[in-house]
Amino acid sequence: MSNSVNLTILRGLANIVMVLLLAPFCQGVMRKVTALIQSRKGPPILQPYYDLLKLLGKEDIESGDSPAMQRISVYMSLATVLAITCLIPMGFPAPMNGQGDVILLIYLLTLSGICTLLAGLAAGSTYSLLGISRQMMIMITLEPLFVAAIIIGAIHTQSFRLDTVLDGSVYMNQGFPWSGIIILIVMLLSFQAFVERAPFDISEAETELMEGPLMEYSGPKLAILKYASMVKLIIYSALMVNIFIPWHGGIAGPLQWILFWVKIFALVLLITLVASTHARYRIDQAIRYFALLLAAAIAALALAGFGF
Q1: What is the rounded CA–CA span in Å between residue 277 and residue 38?
Q2: Residue 128 near residue 214 (C-beta atoms within 8 A)
Q3: What is the value of pTM for the model shown?
Q4: Dihedral through CA 184, CA 273, CA 261, CA 98, nearest 10?
Q5: Domain that holds residue 156
Q6: What is the tally of structural domains in the chain?
Q7: CA quadruple 274, 278, 282, 284: dihedral positive or negative?
Q8: What are the Cα distances from residue 45, in Å, to 51, 180, 238, 269?
Q9: Residue range 231-243, pLDDT digits in tens
Q10: What DSSP letter does each residue of the chain carry, written as one string?
Q11: Which of 42, 304, 264, 45 is nearest to 175 (CA)?
Q12: Contact indicator for 81, 235 with CB cutoff of 8 Å
């Protein structure tokens, strides 16, 4: 029993280290590709690593209304996303599949967004409060979309087990997977918002709010919040791959791991292309857009309930 627990912990740590190492690289690739699309040279691909190290080496200045809440929300934001990395497959089976289910996954995904809200609220500046008000409005209509995708998988498989639901389960019904196809379209149309990239980076909106919820943060705390955002990109991309395109053609071992990360980087490139070619939505436009997608997700959920 002890060896099994130790092995689970080691696999969880391996997932965490892997994501922490690759998340800034994905950010660097996004910056470089964006620059190429806009006919610029752009920063080096390794620039996000340098930025994080520079911020971590700065003085930790606390200027918000509630320094204690700032510390808690900042550390919780990173801790939450790292906990999620232990629950989802990253090219190999999830390390802690038996220690949680899809309900825990939904709670942790929601908590990661709430941590950002608390960080902005604790900062107390006008820009951060405006940013979290936008973030809150988006969360109300956006978060149910991913929940619907996970629940549709659970309905089709009649299970809450992570390894069962995170394995193309949205298509597992007896006939044509209408609910799976609809929720796939919904998730593709809303995915930019989940990873907080243009045209749905409304809560930060650097040209308007100077990074909104992060306005009052600097030094190590800003580094942690930035790092959590980078990790979140990997997490949501991994969830998209596992739920909608998990197939690897019978490939096993290291090749399966490589194919998984090829899918992740392909998704990152798609996100970059959309972000580079679309202007930011206004908050009212985004809410109407998400409301339409929410209606489609509810329809897909109803179809899943009837076996479609």
Answers
A1: 9
A2: yes
A3: 0.92
A4: -40
A5: 2-305
A6: 1
A7: negative
A8: 11, 36, 21, 14
A9: 999 999 999 999 9
A10: -HHHHHHHHHHHHHHHHHHHHHHHHHHHHHHHHHHHHTT-----TTHHHHHHHHHHTS-----SS-HHHHHHHHHHHHHHHHHHHTTS-SSS--TTGGG-BHHHHHHHHHHHHHHHHHHHHHH--HHHHHHHHHHHHHHHHHHHHHHHHHHHHHHHHT--BHHHHTTTGGG-SSS--HHHHHHHHHHHHHHHHHTT-TTS-TTT-HHHHTTGGGTT--HHHHHHHHHHHHHHHHHHHHHHHHHH----TT--THHHHHHHHHHHHHHHHHHHHHHHHSPPPPHHHHHHHHHHHHHHHHHHHHHHHTT-
A11: 304
A12: yes
User: Which two structure tokens, joined as six digits, stand for 227?
Assistant: 């790092």
Residue written as token pair 């997700």? 297
pLDDT surpasses 90 at 1 = no
User: What would the pLDDT profile of 17-63 be if each residue is shown by its tens digit?
Assistant: 999 999 999 999 999 999 999 889 889 999 999 999 999 999 888 77
Spatial contact of 112 and 41, defined as CB atoms under 8 Å apart: no
